Amino acid sequence: MLSPDLVAILACPRCEHALRQYADSSFGCSGCGLTFPLLDGVPCLFPEPGATLAEWRQRLQFALEKLVRDAGSLQLELQNPRLRPLTRERLVQLQGACVDQARRLGELLSPLALHQSQLALATHLALQTRLPADQGLTTYYTNIHRDWSWGETENAESLKLVSGALGAGGAPSSILVMGSGAGRLAYDLHEQVRPASTIALDFNPLLALVASRAVDGTGAQLWEFPLAPRSIGDHAVLRTLVAPEPVREGFHLVLGDVLRPPVLAGSIDVVVTPWVVDILPEDFRSVAARVNGLLKPGGRWICFGSLAFSQPEAAARYSLEEVLAIVMDSGFAPPDVREDEIPYMCSPASRHGRRELVVTIGASKDQAVPKPARHRSLPDWLVAGTQPVPLLPAFQLQAMTTRIYGFIMGLIDGRRSVADMARLLAEQRLMTREEAEPAVRTFLTKMYEESQRPPGF
Fold first, then answer.
1. What is the torsion angle, in degrees rounded to the nearest 10, for the CA atoms of residue 78, residue 79, residue 84 and residue 89?
2. Are 195 and 170 in contact (CB under 8 A)?
3. Using CA atoms, how far apart are residues 89 and 72, in angstroms rounded to an integer?
4. Cα gap 328→405, rounded to integer Å
5. Cα dihedral 211/215/221/225 (nearest 10)
6. What string of DSSP letters covers 134-196?
7. Which residue from 375, 376, 175 is spatially nearest to 286, judged by alpha carbons?
8. How many Cα atoms occupy the beta-carbon half-sphere of 315 within 13 Å?
9. How far apart are CA 161 and CA 342, in angstroms?
10. How far apart are CA 179 and CA 107, in angstroms?
11. Disulfide engineering: 65 pairs with which of 75, 121, 337, 382, CB 3.0-4.6 Å?
């Protein structure tokens, strides 16, 4: 059972009513009646917990199948008798690491009940069920190793900057870390600042389950696969992931969406948003108002990271000056701000480590502001499935290109040449003969190049 103090501030991410905890430690909503399960002891407080866990289950299956495929490809390469000895040594190491990593990930994420998912790899690819490239199961995989294996210098400097932005006064009663990742900053704040309770909120079950084992002292072992290995032995390195000491009472990992935070309004003393506000699919103005609503009067918001906004609209790619103005327009007193250069992802096995210029903003809630609209990632016609699908211009264009692509792919029979296919396109009046041949060649070149790249997950 979680502490009563924590349960008292948790809220339903769907209707925002208070939650109650049952005897089996799961949660229920007093408003909409939704039940929220536990994933190996971690509350899953998603607006649609069943659907979200099913999504992660599919992503896990895809990741495991990809590791098996990679291991198989490496095994085929090892059959080449002309491999140099050092190359063979490296491929043997990678092949064994892929096989072992699949086993370790499967065991670590066994609470997802992978046996309930029966989709094959080809089905995943056809349905395009992968998460967006910036939010996959292993998108922040390197962070796991940084947090719990080799990132002591970066972790210490991050803690120093964030804790230094807390302002005057004693230890806060509650800290909410939104987008806590693998959990090291939340753990360090809980151990060093010593609030009564710390909530580490993230939506990725891999990060949460690694953090759970790390902070309780059990630990876990996973392979690191550096993108730029320093030596032949660094292409795959087995790391032990564990906290310096088991975490003290009051530390809580929660799975949920930071855009639908499962926390009652006005219940938190300190909200920390590390490396997250600039990657959210929501305008920073709404994020600032949402954080304001979570804080108690006089509560503190600490925004930490690089502030590298990459939203589709240029108007939403805010500068530091604009960010500070939005913070003050969102009910916060003039913030404290500083910029510091710290080490970033400096794995001892990789050549990719660098120095990063980070921004630390500390702002106190001065007044309440109007609550932002509830975040909706998808339109109603797609979620409910009962409304007409709008004939969007992008859909019309896609329909046209799909027909042409389908026609071209149907012409591939192992006998026709590029020139033959171009002639048939011209005969069907889909394009002129002059346009058809370069178009077919470009299309097939793209298809060939994509076939040579391993699918992501």
1. 30
2. no
3. 16
4. 51
5. 50
6. TSSTTTTHHHHHIIIII-HHHHHHHHHHHHHTS-SSS--SEEEEET-TTSHHHHHHHHHT--S
7. 375
8. 2
9. 10
10. 24
11. 121
Q: Which three-class secondary structure state does DSSP give residue 202?
A: strand
Sign of CA dihedral 124, 127, 128, 131: negative
* Residue 326 three-state SS: helix
Residue 338 corresponds to which tokens in the numbers above?
Answer: 């500083």
Nearest residue to 180 (alpha-carbon basis) of 234, 133, 144? 144
Structure tokens belonging to residue 428: 């069907």
Distances (CA, A) of 21 to 7, 13, 52, 205: 7, 15, 21, 21
User: Contact, 239 vs 145, CB < 8 A?
Assistant: yes
Single out the residue of 262, 279, 260 nearest to residue 375, CA to CA: 260
The kind and range of the H/E element at 71 are helix 49-77
The tokens for 432 are 């002129």
CA separation for the pair 302, 272 (Å, rounded): 5
- As a whole number of angstroms, the distance between CA 21 and CA 8 comes to 10
> Which residues share a beta bridge with 362?
302, 336
What are 78-111's pLDDT values in tens digits?
A: 999 999 999 999 999 999 999 999 999 999 999 9
Question: Nearest 5°: CA angle at 435, between 434 and 441?
Answer: 110
Dist CA 28 CA 66 (whole Å):
36
- Contact between residue 93 and residue 233 where contact means Cβ atoms under 8 Å apart: yes
Closest CA to 25 of 13, 17, 8, 37: 37
Phi first, then psi, for residue 455 (nearest 5°) are -65, 145
Q: Can you tell me the distance from the alpha carbon of 267 to that of 257, in angstroms, rounded to the nearest whole number?
A: 17
Domains and CATH numbers, the chain: 4-36 (no CATH), 49-127 (no CATH), 141-364 (3.40.50.150), 391-450 (no CATH)
pLDDT in tens, 209-265: 999 999 999 999 999 999 999 999 999 999 999 999 999 999 999 999 999 999 999
Q: E strand or H helix at 406, and its extent?
A: helix 393-411
CB 172 within 8 A of CB 139: no
| Parts of the chain with a pLDDT under 70 | 1-2, 114-135, 375-385, 454-457
d(CA 215, CA 147): 11
